[in-house]
Amino acid sequence: MVKAKSVRATTAGSKRLVPLLIWLGLALAIGASAAADTTPCLLVSGVSFVPVILLPQGLQAKVTEHTPVVEIEGLRLVPVRHLAVSNGAQLTWHSETRTMDFRWQGREIELHALSNLTFWREAAIVALTSFRPQTTTTGCVSAVDGDTIKVSSGETVRYIGVDTPETKHPTKPVQYFGPEASAFNTRLVAGRQIALEYDVGRRDRYGRLLAYVHVGDAFVNADLVAGGYAQVLTYPPNVRYQQLFSYLQQQAREAGKGLWGQASSDENTASHPRGKYVGSVHSNIYHRPECKWAARISEANAVWFDSAAEARAAGYRPCRACKPPQ
Question: Is 214 found in the same domain as 141?
Answer without folding.
Answer: yes
